[in-house]
Design goal:
With 312 residues, this protein is α/β, with parallel strands linked by helices. Helices cover 45% and strands 19% of the residues. The protein is globular.
């Protein structure tokens, strides 16, 4: 298990306090004077439990380093916590788009930052474990041949593990089940190879939509499932709506002309204190999906159905 934490450019006193608390918790904390150390060959991403960065005001340079770090092998599974002044707060959306997971101002106490960061660190460790398992997917017959995504068998195993982790650390877990609207029409009008191509491209969109430590799998046919760790109803609904827009705005290549694609999305959540099982989480997301199909397709719905339409 990765136990190293990188603290880069600790300009703010709270960064030193964070390092001290993480060190007291058993992590090996190393300090560097530059964000560029994230890209150094000395830093093995597989050994990093987290990166804590002190924001210094050069937004373009900082965004570029974050993007390159995320593109670097292994960087996808490392939580990045950014701490800075009001500039960091004002540019938080840009930092998150570039690859930061959490953005705080330097007046937030170290304990409060750690309270929000610890679940991410735990999930990132689980993500790296899953990534190692992913490398063995094809050998163990748990990869979908058409899309390259994990298949239903792998998803079932990942679901049990992730539900147990969410229960243990007391954080919400959400599931989105989605399938492509009217794919049968594409198969009948353009042939099954065209339908298979749409499924493959849909899987690519799902991979782009998910966060680095989430899991997306093809359950079969044109149905996919997405596990969102540490995400409550609001976050999961936002993610589903964003993915829905990405599908609508994507150009799906057909044999002769682009294919217009929409999908319907069912969302459900387990929250701390609720005794839902792994199976009921997926079943409830599937019920929401069915509700969306019945109400006209190309929709995002949340289970239970009693939730206001405005929210679902």
């Amino acid at each position: 298990m990765a136990r190293n934490v990188l603290v880069a450019r600790p300009l703010w006193p709270v960064l030193r306090r964070l390092g001290e608390e993480l060190s007291a918790g058993g992590y090996e904390v190393g300090y560097e004077g530059s964000w560029g150390s994230l890209l150094s060959s000395r830093i093995a991403c597989g050994d990093l439990a987290a990166a804590v960065l002190g924001e210094y005001g050069n937004l373009g340079e900082e965004e570029e380093i974050l993007r390159r770090f995320r593109e670097r092998g292994g960087g996808a599974g490392v939580p990045v916590i950014l701490v800075g002044g009001m500039h960091a707060a004002n540019q938080a959306s840009r930092f998150r788009a570039a690859g930061a997971d959490l953005v705080f101002t330097a007046d937030v106490p170290a304990g409060e930052i750690l309270e929000q960061a610890r679940p991410l660190i735990a999930y990132a460790e689980a993500y790296r474990s899953a990534a190692a398992a992913n490398r063995e997917l094809r050998e163990t017959a748990m990869a979908d041949e058409l899309t390259g995504l994990p298949n239903r068998r792998f998803f079932s195993r990942e679901l049990e593990r992730t539900v147990e982790l969410a229960r243990r650390i007391g954080r919400p877990l959400s599931c989105i089940v989605t399938d492509i609207d009217d794919l049968k029409i594409v198969n009948e009008s353009q042939g099954q190879p065209a339908g298979d191509s749409v499924i493959r491209q849909f899987g690519d969109v799902m991979t782009k939509a998910k966060r680095s430590y989430d899991s997306v799998a093809r359950l079969g046919g044109d149905q996919f499932a997405w596990l969102l760790v540490d995400a409550g109803p609001g976050q999961a609904l936002h993610a589903a709506r964003r993915a829905k827009r990405m599908v609508e705005e994507s150009v799906f290549r057909g044999p002769h002309a682009p294919v217009l694609v929409t999908a319907t999305w069912g969302v459900a959540t387990i929250t701390p204190g609720r005794e839902w099982t792994a199976e009921s989480l997926v079943e409830n997301a599937d019920r929401a999906l069915y509700w969306g199909k019945e109400s006209g397709k190309n929709a995002v719905k949340f289970y239970p159905p009693g939730k206001a339409d405005a929210d679902a």
